[in-house]
């Protein structure tokens, strides 16, 4: 079971192992990448009113991935309207110079790719700035590549689509990798969260939870549903 802070204060840096926590089997984060940014206030209002655990921000530089999304100013604007946990996923070739910017605008978790530059330096900086750190693997990357980073992370995130775009189909061939990483975490550091990002819906959520995932990012599927609250409720008890 995972413990999370229910009444999260903006920019609070704690979300695990503190008092006033509600226990959960899985944490659910909303990826707002594919939503209508002209309607962002309304989207955030719906998220705030739901039992969602965090908001997932996809930061794309057009180099590491073939798409450009948004930067720290957007995160800062959303922070003014939400006290949820902010999970910032950096799809940036060299994340190092941008980490402080995202911490300053309210990131609670920052995840960087193991395929990017300055990985260890970036993870150390995230920790130094008192934010939860995470390492992400692309679908083609072997689980072995993250072993050396485990002592420096709070989260391992497995991509179940090629990063760059929302709304893609879940890659079933990542299931074995999730299972292997889950065993690795149990052997080495049980406190690390195992997050899955891409193509999550009720079916795929069940598949990844069954092999050990405990944090799910949900984008297109969530926002295509009539009732976000009910969808989250269902995901929480899968
Ligand atoms: C892909 C992003 C994901 C994605 C999730 O590069 O990292 O967060 O937007 O959205 P869905 O659920 O639509 O795959
Ligand atoms: Zn993401």
Explain how this protein is built.
The chain has 238 residues and is of the alpha/beta class. It has a single domain (26-138, 147-236), classed as TIM Barrel (Alpha-Beta Barrel). The chain contains eight helices and ten strands. Strands 3-4-5-6-7-8-9-10 form an eight-stranded parallel barrel. Strands 1-2 form a two-stranded antiparallel sheet. Strand 3, helix 1 (40-49) and strand 4 (54-60) form a beta-alpha-beta unit. The chain binds D-xylitol-5-phosphate and zinc ion. D-xylitol-5-phosphate binds next to strand 4, strand 10 and helix 7. Zinc ion (ZN) is lined by residues 31, 56, 58, 89, 197, 217.
Properties at a glance:
binds D-xylitol-5-phosphate; two-stranded antiparallel sheet; 238 residues; 29% helix; 10 strands; TIM Barrel; alpha/beta; 8 helices; globular; 8-stranded parallel beta barrel; binds zinc ion
């Amino acid at each position: 079971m995972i413990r999370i802070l229910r009444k999260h204060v903006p920019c609070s840096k704690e979300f695990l192992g503190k008092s006033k926590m509600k226990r959960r089997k899985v944490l659910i984060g909303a990826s707002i990448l594919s939503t209508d940014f002209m309607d962002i206030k309304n989207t955030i209002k719906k998220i705030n009113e739901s039992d969602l655990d965090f908001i997932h921000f996809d930061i794309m530089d057009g180099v590491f991935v073939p798409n450009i999304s948004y930067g720290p100013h957007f995160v800062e604007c959303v922070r003014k309207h939400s006290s949820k946990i902010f999970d910032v996923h950096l799809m940036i070739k060299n994340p190092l110079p941008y980490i402080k910017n995202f911490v300053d605008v309210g990131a609670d978790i920052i995840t960087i790719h193991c395929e990017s530059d300055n990985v260890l330096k970036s993870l150390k900086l995230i920790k130094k700035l008192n934010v939860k750190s995470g390492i992400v693997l692309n679908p083609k990357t072997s689980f072995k590549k993250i072993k050396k980073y485990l002592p420096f992370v709070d989260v391992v995130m497995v991509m179940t689509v090629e990063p760059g775009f929302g709304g893609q189909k879940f890659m079933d061939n990542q299931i074995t990798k999730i299972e292997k990483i889950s065993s690795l975490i149990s052997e080495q550091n049980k406190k690390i969260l195992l997050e899955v990002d891409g193509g999550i819906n009720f079916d795929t959520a069940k598949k990844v939870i069954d092999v050990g995932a405990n944090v799910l990012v949900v984008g297109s599927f969530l926002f295509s549903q009539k009732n976000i609250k009910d969808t989250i409720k269902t995901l929480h008890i899968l």
